[in-house]
Amino acid sequence: QVQLVESGGGLVQPGGSLRLSCAASGRSFSSYTMGWFRQAPGKEREFVAAIRWSGSTVYADSVKGRFTISRDNVKNTVLLQMNSLKPEDTAVYYCAAMDRGVSSWSYWGQGTQVTVSS
Known about the structure:
four-stranded antiparallel sheet, 11 strands, 0% helix, mainly beta
């Protein structure tokens, strides 16, 4: 079992930056693919970024070049650095984990609100 706790959300002006953190507890963190998703009001949850156990990354086109995902396998954390934020980035951001050999996201955090507004 893996528990995920997000932090770092808040209110930021357009063009600003935020860094989200996801702390994971449980076994074998380094073997998990970790991801970030977001859900805006009235919209479905969407993929933002993921980082595999190998360190390779993948991003949604909407955030490519502005967001950076990273992980620290010693501290069992995954970060999402968000720069050049836009109002359309406003959403609840969720951390998720996928076990190696599995093709679905098995574990989810409770989410952290990010609001981009002037």
